[in-house]
Amino acid sequence: MTDQTLSVEENDAVADTVREALARRRITRQYLADQAKISLSTLEKALSGQRPFTLASIVRLEAALGVTLRRPTSAKQAAVARLTGIAPEDLGSYARPAVSWIEGDYVTVRPSFSNPDSIYTYRTSIAWSEEKSHLVFKESDRVDAAFTQDGNVSIPHQSGYIYLITNKLGQYRFIIVSRPTIAGEMFGILTTLQSGRGMNLLPVSTPIIFIPVKSLGHNPDYGRIEKGHAAYGKYRGFVARALEEPFALLVAR
Question: How many helices and strands (H and E) does the chain possess?
Answer without folding.
Answer: 8, 9
